[in-house]
Amino acid sequence: MIIPHAFRLTQGVDLKKGILHFVQGNNIQAGSLLSGIGCLSKVIIRLADESKTIEIDGPLEILTLSGTLTPQHVHLHISVADKKGQVIGGHLVEGSIVSYTAEVCLMSFTNLSFKREYDPSTRFDELKISTK
Prior knowledge:
The chain has one helix at about 15-25, and strands at about 1-10, 30-45, 55-70, 75-80, 85-90, 95-110, 110-120, 125-130. The chain is mainly β. The chain is globular.
């Protein structure tokens, strides 16, 4: 069964931590982010196939936000636009701060369980899907 969820994060909240807190507080064992919109005062992202991160100060508009959700980890990708309309995106890192608001919609799957396990071939913690 799929259960929809929606919530709002407010000024000063870390976007990634706020979503993880919601997942943990609602005992979501497997989920997917449907949408996220709002504004950030700062974003920290890891670019594709990179180990380093970049930090961009706002104001920034969230254009897209998607990912998979486990009770221990939320794997999120984001794209944002600055005040000139320039867009950048990548892997969302903790430390990305909501400036005014962030509206988040997600769904949880009651028949599945997600967790992350280290994969030596990719050298990353990768999604492991189990059925309940």
